[in-house]
Specification:
Strands 9, 10, 11, 12, 13, 14, 15, 16 and 17 form a nine-stranded antiparallel sheet that branches. The protein has twelve helices and 17 strands. By secondary structure, the chain is an alpha+beta fold. The model has no long low-confidence stretch (mean pLDDT 96). 42% of the residues are buried. Helix 2 packs parallel to helix 3. It binds adenosine monophosphate. The site of adenosine monophosphate has 14 residues, from strand 14. Adenosine monophosphate binds next to strand 14.
Length: 375
């Protein structure tokens, strides 16, 4: 059985906050890190042993990353698949490039999920302006137009609410110049996510289900454990495990889901990496998502994911950072602050998060409200 032992070097494609948190955790475990990112002194570069500063597409730099790493992982899904294919031929990339190809494209992702009989929102691929019009009869209104590639945090998607907006929808499609889909609007009562780890030997483990609130399509806060029934929890976890096993995932996969008004679970999106909605695990689980990712790709047995305490994770965006810093002396003693070391604090940019632990959501929620940072 292949095990990449502490003392070895883990290479990370991408130098953002996810790479940073993988590195901080992994360094505690005794691993060394090298990251490739075009921005000098990236969040991950600040804590890695070495940053190679170059575009992801620069082959010489990609080769240098491969040469100095015993195992390679990535911290975002929009890695050019030709790059991962090159890496795969020269080094150990246990996550492979196949999963990236699927999750980089909504059409492939949703079609793959359908082939596993996993429920997804009904959708169509736009082939002509006529599809934009007939989608009203096929999927109802409102509907959501989404770019097949490149979208995140609600970018690359438009909600079409009435017939009057059809000319606008056609204009969006014509201008986009890339594949787009139209998705049925799902009336949901909650948004949930489940993170599953699967190691190179096929062992799997789920993290507790998170209940996620978004503001302007950006994750605002996660409540764990999610306030759902046991039956819904089992359904969410078994759907997540089915996806991880069917895709033969190695590492982590985050599965974003809707809990519909009828109590059904519908899968919205996959992310083949640690996920913002799993940051709670850093302070509330026996094993964090970052440690689990390292264990999974290094072939170690997966850690216990038991939740130790109710928790609310709240994101710190650019517009919140100064308020957090001003009120740093008022944070409750059970609040754990994580900042990502980003130089520029831009509106809606994820700068950090706080894990608020406590005995009940009511008590934690009151502590958060009393701070007056997010209101
Ligand atoms: P996505 O980029 O697909 O994760 O979508 C961003 C957010 O838009 C989701 O977290 C939901 O809040 C909302 N959304 C996306 N797709 C749908 C849908 N089919 N029905 C209702 N809301 C949606």
């Amino acid at each position: 059985m292949k095990v990449i032992k502490p003392g070895s070097t883990i290479g990370i494609l991408g130098g953002g906050q996810l790479g940073r948190m993988i590195s901080i955790t992994g360094r505690n475990m005794g691993y060394r890190f090298v990251t490739l990112d075009p921005t000098p002194n990236s969040p991950c570069g600040q804590v890695a042993d070495l940053q190679i500063t170059a575009p992801y597409t620069e082959l010489k730099a990609v080769k240098a990353l491969a040469d100095s790493s015993d195992v390679i992982t990535y911290e975002f899904e929009n890695v050019d698949s030709t790059i991962t294919s090159i890496l795969e031929t020269t080094s150990f990339v246990p996550q492979g490039s196949e999963l990236l190809k699927i999750t980089q494209n909504r059409i492939r992702e949703k079609s793959t999920l359908k082939s596993f009989h996993v429920p997804v929102a009904p959708f169509l691929v736009i082939q002509s302006e006529n599809d934009i019009e007939t989608a009203i009869d096929r999927l109802g209104l409102p509907y959501i137009m989404k770019t097949a590639t490149g979208g995140y945090d609600g970018k690359g998607q438009w909600v079409i609410k009435s017939k009057e907006e059809i000319p606008f929808a056609m204009e969006v499609w014509n201008k986009a110049g890339i594949d787009m889909i139209i998705e049925q609007f799902i009336p949901f009562s909650k948004e949930l996510s489940v993170i599953v780890a699967r190691n190179i030997h096929g062992q799997t483990k789920t993290f507790p289900v998170a209940e996620n609130d978004h503001i302007n399509n950006i994750l605002h806060q996660s409540f764990v454990p999610a306030r759902i029934t046991d039956e819904q929890r089992i359904q969410a976890e078994s759907t997540a495990l089915k996806i991880a096993d069917s895709l033969q995932v190695v590492g982590l996969i985050a599965i974003e889901m809707f809990l519909t008004n009828d109590g059904e679970i519908i899968v919205n999106e996959l992310a083949p990496r640690p996920h913002n909605s799993g940051h709670y695990s850093m302070d509330a689980c026996i094993t964090s998502q970052f440690e689990q990712h390292i264990r999974a790709i290094c072939g170690m047995p997966l850690g216990d994911t038991t939740l130790l305490s109710p928790i609310i994770m709240v994101n710190i965006l650019g517009q919140h950072l100064n308020k957090v810093l001003d009120k740093i002396d008022q944070l409750p003693p059970t609040a754990k602050l994580h900042l990502y070391g980003k130089k520029e604090s831009v509106e809606n940019r994820k700068m950090g998060h706080i894990n608020f632990l406590g005995s009940t959501f009511e008590q934690i929620d009151e502590e958060i409200k009393n701070l007056g940072i997010w209101s």
